[in-house]
Write a structure and sequence with these properties.
alpha/beta, 10-stranded mixed β-sheet, two-stranded antiparallel sheet, binds 1,4-dihydronicotinamide adenine dinucleotide, binds magnesium ion
Length: about 350
């Protein structure tokens, strides 16, 4: 098994170090190769994502990413040039974001107990409003025009919906909620709704429901217990998963996978959070999101027992927290001992 590691910038490097510590403890001997990408490289060399690096990454079984970005880099350079390019070039069409209220943690919602929130968002990762389709005219003048188009293909929508149903089939509650805005976005929404109804027929033992995205944003705060698997488009999923992270104890715990289920290209696993320049270099970032990303990676690569071990160790770690400030390396050490 060969894993490429893009630790990136800021706390990305700090949390990935702990993820790798845990990986080595739970499954010794995995070959990891570090790749230098992100704001630091951009400033040093002007390069964002050379083709030669892309070709090398493609040879790996998976990619572990920390976070890239810094306020000193113009917006979009790394997001479009590196993160989105990886997702698109490697056709990572399932953006998987599990949300769980872990034992020992408390979210901002009163009355919700650990264990009660346990859902996963399957966000479409290669289409929608994120393809860069659009353009502009008369920039900087009062006549300026800007368009940003949402691209949705039957192929792209169908494969991500089918993936969501397959995931629901492996979970206890066996329910898929499709989220869109079919009442207003009738073109894309119509395609999503028809495809959802057709794929659902292949999975008669899985319950289905549909919600508009604005209603889903509300229910995610008032009644997140109701969800099992949510499938939605790229932009809606981006926004909903930040709400999901917020109601389940914060961004320091939220892991994600950008998955190519066909395995034609490597999938990428990363914490949902960014490089957190405000706390970088202080050794106080929570590495749990990065550690749980390692668990998602192992699950994807066919090591479910090791993935469960990491999740159980994280549950123990979180149950033992007392509200004291955490130390990044100490969390990694404790979890490593628990999984070894
Ligand atoms: P951010 O997620 O880096 O930070 C938001 C807030 O959460 C900050 O107050 C930060 O200290 C805190 N936080 C984040 N992760 C934490 C952790 N593990 N433990 C404790 N606290 C944590 O988002 P922000 O500030 O909007 O972006 C910072 C940079 O990261 C930007 O350059 C942005 O473009 C980039 N970014 C990169 C991502 C990626 O590589 N996938 C994702 C999101 C942002
Ligand atoms: Mg986001």
């Amino acid at each position: 098994m060969r894993i490429a590691v893009v630790a990136g910038d800021g706390i990305g490097t700090e949390v990935v170090a702990e993820g790798l510590k845990v990986l080595d403890a739970v499954l010794p001997g995995v070959e990891t190769t570090a790749y230098d990408l992100g704001a630091a490289r951009y400033h040093r060399t002007g390069e964002v994502f050379p083709d030669s690096v892309r070709d090398e990454l493609a040879q790996h079984d998976a990619i572990l990413l920390g976070a890239v970005g810094d306020p000193s880099v113009p917006p979009g350079v790394l997001e479009r040039g590196l993160l989105l390019k990886l997702r698109f070039d490697f056709d990572q069409y399932v953006n998987l974001r599990p949300s769980r209220l872990w034992p020992g943690t408390s979210g901002p919602l009163g009355g919700v107990k650990p264990g009660e929130i346990d859902f996963v968002v399957v966000r479409e990762g290669t289409e929608g409003l994120y393809t860069g389709a659009g353009g502009g005219l008369h920039r900087g003048t009062p006549a300026e025009i800007a368009t940003e188009e949402s691209l949705n293909t039957r192929h792209g929508v169908e494969r991500v919906i089918r993936d969501a149903f397959a995931r629901a089939g492996k979970r206890a509650r066996r329910k898929v909620t499709m989220v869109h805005k079919t009442n207003v976005l009738t073109h894309a929404g119509g395609l999503w709704a028809r495809t959802f109804a057709e794929v659902a027929k292949e999975f008669p033992d899985i319950a289905t429901e549909y919600q508009h995205v604005d209603a889903a944003a509300m229910f995610m705060v008032t009644n997140p217990q109701r969800y099992d698997v949510i499938v939605t488009d790229n932009l809606f999923g981006d926004i909903l998963t930040d709400i999901a992270a917020a109601v389940t104890g914060g961004i320091g715990l939220a892991a994600s996978g950008c998955i190519n289920p066909t395995r034609a290209f490597p999938s990428m696993f990363e914490p949902v959070h960014g490089s957190a320049p405000d706390i970088a270099g202080q050794g106080k970032a929570d590495p749990v999101a990065a550690i749980l990303s390692v668990a998602l990676c192992l699950e994807h690569l066919g090591h479910p027992d090791e993935a469960r071990k990491i999740e159980e160790a994280v549950a123990t770690e979180l149950s033992g927290r007392t509200g004291e400030p955490i130390r990044t390396a100490e969390v990694g050490d404790r979890v490593s001992v628990l999984v070894a």
